[in-house]
Amino acid sequence: MEDGKLTNDVNFNVNTPGYFIYLDWIGDIIHYLDVELPDTPGQPATTAEGTHQAIFDNFITWEDLSPGRHTFSAQLVTPSLTPLEPHMHAGIELEVPPPGTSQPVINSLSVQTLCRPGYTPPGMPGRPQQDGQACADINVGVDVLNFKIVADKIGQQAAPGEGHFIYYFNVTPPTTPGEPALTEEGTYAVTTDSIVSWLGVLPGEYSVWVQLVNNDNTPLEPPVIAGATIIVPIDAERYLGY
Predict the structure, then answer these.
(1) Do 107 and 156 fall into the same domain?
(2) Count of domains in the chain?
(3) Same domain, 75 and 142
(4) Distance separating alpha carbons of residues 88 and 84, to the nearest angstrom
(5) Is 232 found in the same domain as 140?
């Protein structure tokens, strides 16, 4: 946002406290735009010019992007710009709207994990449960523009410009017009809350999504969705949050 108006700039920030504080890790972060992350051990993790920036900074702004769907990602690399082992990365996918649009927009998406050492997972999707294995909660927060979140109309008839959220865990959001955008039980949450948490997630790589939907749980036309990938590390108990 600049002066209250949408721009074509996207801010991307990734937190990596464990690697700087607890492991005395020294290296770079490579930020990527609209490319698949190179992850071959020992090989440079750089991509074509204009699609990556290797910097010692968690924060980056991608400026003057074309309207449309874009993928923003980052990975931790060694001083020689090769991927860490195991591979550590995160990314977000969202729609960059034309400046000044009046259409519904997911303006920001944030994803954070908070570790709960020694916690026994309650059977959420992930690896087989083991008593005492480290795990984390994955918190997903969203902010929207040009769309009214209505608390008392879930399940009622669709009305233009209003509705609620459906959050998804490790599934692809359905976007068929006129059809309920629901997935398998336990993989989605229908709510008007701007923040949800997936609890007791075991180490592994996960995808989370959020979709704006009509009062009757059907997708908007065109669909408005955003998603992210994040890794819960095997040694998650070493980190308060990341």
Answers:
(1) yes
(2) 2
(3) no
(4) 7
(5) yes
CA dist., res. 144 & res. 148, Å (int) = 9
Query: 174 lies in which domain range?
Result: 102-242
**Least trusted range by pLDDT, from 32-36, 120-124, 144-148:** 120-124
Looking at 21, 53, 88, the residue that finishes a domain is 88
H/E segment holding residue 17:
helix 17-17
d(CA 232, CA 111) in angstroms, rounded, equals: 12
Contact indicator for 54, 81 with CB cutoff of 8 Å: yes
Note whether 180 and 219 are within 8 A (CB).
Answer: no
Q: Residue 116 CB: number of other CB atoms within 10 A?
A: 16
| CA–CA separation, 78 and 183 (whole Å) | 39
Q: Is residue 97 part of a domain?
A: no
Count how many Cα atoms sit within 13 Å of the Cα of residue 157 in the half-sphere of its side chain: 1
Predicted confidence (pLDDT) at residue 16 exceeds the cutoff of 80 = no
Contact 218, 211 (CB under 8 A): no
With a pLDDT cut of 90, the percent of the chain lying above it is 57
| Alpha-carbon span 208 to 198, nearest angstrom | 9
Helix (H), strand (E) at residue 10: strand 10-13
CA-to-CA distance for 200 and 134, rounded, in angstroms?
9
Q: What is the pTM of this model?
A: 0.85
User: Residue 226 in contact with residue 10, Cβ under 8 Å?
Assistant: no
- Which amino acid makes up residue 53? Q
